[in-house]
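Quarterly update, task 2.4: calcium ion-bound model.
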Amino acid sequence: RELGLLMDKLLSQAPARLARNNQSVTAEELRDAITRNELFNEYQPVVSLVDGELASLEVLVRWQHPDKGRVMPDQFIYLAEEQGLIDDLTRWVIAEALQQSLRWQKAGIHCALSVNLSMENLEQLSFTDWLLKALEDADLKPWDLILEITESRPMRRPEIVLDNLTRLRLKGFKLAVDDFGTGHASLAQIRDIPFDQFKLDRSFVHAAGKERRIRVMFESAMGLAKELGLEITAEGVEDEEDWHFLRQHDCHKAQGYFIARPLGADKVGDWLNHWGG
Ligand code: C2E
Ligand code: CA
Ligand code: CA
Ligand code: CA
């Protein structure tokens, strides 16, 4: 834990340019991107493995950089987290998704949204109240939102995180452990926090039917979820074999290129017609 905090400290002091990619973007550019509306959301369908119905749409942010083209979240979320921009970013992403949901509702599309939260968001005491207020304005109920949470580092303010998560759960939001199997402390997380679902990282999903080692890890995660009464969503369902394997193993929901890529908001209706008939 001490070491984790030290790493955190070092990371947060690293220069903003700290490049994990060859497209290095800066914190200043990102700050401007948020105010200049260069961000946009894509939506990836999550479907029920029981009846194929659309279960939710995961909101995935992208950045249309004026010179560098499309920048993916893996290349700027960590920067937003390190540079104190994640609060604005998350609020932008959620507000935009809620507005989009209103447009869909008018077009007859009713669907839950899955949104990704960073630990930093939950370390803000005001987050829960902000979210409740935002929902009210969008005619959605807390159970129409699945909050996906990755523990990518130790919590800095665990009391506040627990406080937020407990309040969110009591209000009726659904809470999912994201990237289950890859996080820092997945087991500690599910011990202390009232999660109701897991998202199994794609590294445990694609090829689970083909490779024994992956299958063993997949099955043990499924067993744990079953014992705890949690729902499982499998990420990274890339082919028909993955799909059948998951169905045979009583997995609940699936997401991946086999079903749909992340879609622009205007493509979701077409996909639904094509998928659901
Ligand atoms: P994630 O939460 O694990 O989201 C799933 C990622 O897997 C997405 O990558 C998605 O495009 C990709 N994916 C989906 N199906 C498949 C598949 O079948 N095969 C493969 N190879 N990949 C698939 P993306 O959009 O690049 O997002 C990367 C990560 O960035 C997300 O991982 C999430 O942790 C983070 N992220 C995205 N949007 C947000 C956001 O608004 N806020 C925060 N805090 N994080 C976000
Ligand atoms: Ca996610
Ligand atoms: Ca994640
Ligand atoms: Ca993942």
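Highlight for this quarter: The longest strand covers residues 54-65.
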